[in-house]
Every structure is written in C-alpha cells, then in structure tokens.
Amino acid sequence: MVKMEIKGLLMDPVSNMPVVILRDTTEKGLFLPIWVGVFEANAIALEMEKVATPRPMTHDLLKNLVTELDARVDRVVINDLRENTFFARIHLTRAGANVSVDSRPSDAIALALRSDAEIFVEEEVLEKSRSLRSEGSEQDPDRLRKWLEEASPEDLGKYRM
Asked: Which of 63, 80, 96, 104 has the smallest number of CB atoms closer than 10 Å to its CB?
C-alpha cells in the first residue's frame, strides 16, 4: 500500500466534474486522480476548508456514529479499480476488533478527513490506473497531469462549493 494525501480538489476543465487528487507522501511523485460527484466533492471541500455547518452533514453524522459506538476509523484504503470505477474500504477498530466496510472512495476520503485517518492506495490500483492512461479514457489522467503541471499552486484546491 502507498500512503497518500489530498493534493487538491478541483474541477476538471474538460469534463466539468470534480476531481480529488491524491499524491503519495514520499518523493516518488505518484498521484491518483479520482473523479467524484458534486455532493461528495462538497463534503470533502467543507472539511478541507474547515467550514462549520449549523447541523451535521452526512459524513459528520458517520463520524459521530463511529465515535458514539466507541469505534475509531484507522485508515481508508482505495483497494480496487474495475471498469473505470474505484473501490475503497474503511478500516475501523471497535472493542479490539477490526472491521472493514465497503465504501465509495469519495465517502471514505470525506470520513478520513473528519476522523484524521490515513489514506492509502493499493499498489495494484495505481498500476491499473496507469494502464488505463495508456489505453486512453474519457477522463484521461495524462491530460489532467499536464494541466496540473501547468496549474499554479493557487489553482489547486479551488473547487467552489
């Protein structure tokens, strides 16, 4: 597994869809773009920007449930890529028992941010993502990589809610 962090949340200028950019925490320069839905992007952006809402949003509710059940989110792992769809698992600990729950990556990331949990990506997923780039796809990560290289630091994280 490769430990990742959120590099940015932005709008893909071609598809006009939000993209979460994960980057490895080492100097390898690995990154993984994950296209997400608008609502999920908003949930991630709210937490990245530390915006307080008057009532708990869905991912705040999830975090509150985990806390009230005396559990802890240990980490989230993006563990598969099938038919252009990413899959994730949320790993929790409760009363000494480990529990792993299936999740969409966007929900797992939103919960990880709220729970101060680490984000990992399986190396196999990074490999599959690279092979998708070589085959080409509608949401071409190479095009996004070029755009990211040309984007100023101020452009990253500029997803508007």
From this structure: 96
